[in-house]
């Protein structure tokens, strides 16, 4: 069986993509920061199903981290990631792009935004709220690296998970507004058996904390069920939905709720009522304790109301 190709440079990726283009083959891209888990695997499986060729990128992107955040501590497990990809059942990905920071940022990069030089991409209007309110440079970094990857690979389709709901909205607007010829595919959140959204940051959590953290999704589901019942009779007040969510989350000792928000599914504007047929994104960020450490791990999750 043909082995997975590993590319380190943009030039190598572009040559591979050109060969696929000449052969009239579609290409799917799954961007990741590594520490691959079943959530990533679901995206990869869909790409393999949809496209003639599939490529996974593994790159921990410095520009989306602030100086005080966990860039150095972020899990880097390239050997384990490659082992997982090589053991993938059935059809395997064709290539993996693992660039150095200097390849992706030729002008250099600092996590201090005032020291950064070069070209960056900002998607205004949907980047400043929710995750963006506590991590102001995060989506600027995401939009920049996604633009770079799309320019390097020019994929037919690119794949993201619904867990990162705001990221999906940012990328969809990025592709639309910059006239990038690719289709953004958003797939449902992959979850642990207890409902906890799969995330590379779950590697920081003990099994006990993972079990306790299941309450995050349970609280969102309580809000979703309330909406489903009430929406049969018309618009539903956001405050009532939030009350059902916080009633559950507030019972979790040691958890710090950063935000719970109900936002328009396309603009991410705050809502006062949820209109059936328009719906909303119900999202939250919660900081949970790390075993044997004074630090916390920041977990995000969401559900979609229709």
Question: Quick gist of this model?
Answer:
This protein has 306 residues and is α/β, with parallel strands linked by helices. Helix content is 35%, strand content 20%. Helix 6 packs across helix 7 (165-177) and helix 8 runs antiparallel to helix 9.
Mean pLDDT: 94
The fourth-level CATH homologous superfamily of the largest domain is HUPs
Structural class per helix/strand content?
Answer: alpha/beta
H and E order = EHEHEHEHHHEHEHEHEEEE
* Sheet with the most strands: spatial strand order: 1-4-3-2-5-6
Distinct helical segment count: 9
Sum up the overall morphology in one term: globular
CATH class of the largest domain: Alpha Beta
Overall radius of gyration: 20 Å
How many beta strands in the DSSP annotation?
11
CATH topology of the largest domain: Rossmann fold
Helix content: 25-40%
CATH architecture of the largest domain: 3-Layer(aba) Sandwich
Major sheet: size, sense and barrel closure?
A: 6 strands, parallel
Low-confidence stretches: none
Distance between the termini: 44 Å
Domain tally: 2
Report the portion of residues in β strands.
Answer: 15-25%
EC number: 6.3.2.1
Pathway: Cofactor biosynthesis; (R)-pantothenate biosynthesis; (R)-pantothenate from (R)-pantoate and beta-alanine: step 1/1
Catalytic activity: (R)-pantoate + beta-alanine + ATP = (R)-pantothenate + AMP + diphosphate + H(+)
Protein name: Pantoate--beta-alanine ligase
């Amino acid at each position: 069986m043909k082995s997975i190709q590993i590319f380190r440079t943009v030039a190598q990726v572009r040559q591979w993509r050109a060969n696929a283009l000449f052969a009239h083959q579609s290409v799917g891209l799954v961007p990741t920061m590594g520490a691959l888990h079943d959530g990533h695997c679901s995206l990869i499986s869909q790409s393999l199903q949809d496209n003639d060729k599939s490529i996974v990128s593994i790159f921990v992107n410095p520009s989306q981290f602030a100086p005080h955040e966990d860039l150095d501590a972020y899990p880097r497990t390239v050997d384990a990631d490659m082992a997982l990809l090589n053991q993938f059942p059935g059809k395997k990905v064709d290539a993996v792009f693992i660039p150095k920071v200097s390849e992706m940022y030729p002008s250099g990069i600092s996590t201090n935004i005032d020291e950064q030089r070069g070209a960056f991409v900002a998607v205004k209007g949907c980047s400043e709220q929710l995750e963006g309110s506590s991590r102001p440079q995060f989506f600027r970094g995401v939009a920049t690296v996604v633009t770079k990857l799309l320019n390097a690979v020019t994929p037919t389709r690119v794949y993201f998970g619904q867990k990162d709901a705001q990221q999906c909205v940012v990328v969809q607007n990025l592709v639309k507004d910059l006239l990038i010829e690719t289709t953004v595919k958003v797939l449902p959140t992959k979850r642990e058996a207890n409902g906890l959204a799969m995330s590379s940051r779950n590697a920081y959590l003990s099994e006990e904390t993972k079990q306790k953290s299941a309450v995050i999704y349970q609280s969102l589901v309580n809000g979703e069920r309330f909406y489903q019942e009430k929406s049969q009779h018309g618009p539903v007040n956001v405050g009532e939905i939030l009350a059902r969510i916080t009633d559950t989350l507030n019972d979790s000792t040691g958890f710090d709720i950063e935000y719970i928000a109900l936002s328009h599914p396309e603009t991410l504007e705050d809502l006062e009522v949820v209109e059936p047929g328009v719906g909303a994104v119900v999202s939250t960020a919660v900081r949970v304790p790390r075993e044997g450490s004074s630090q916390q791990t920041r977990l995000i999750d969401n559900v979609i109301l229709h």
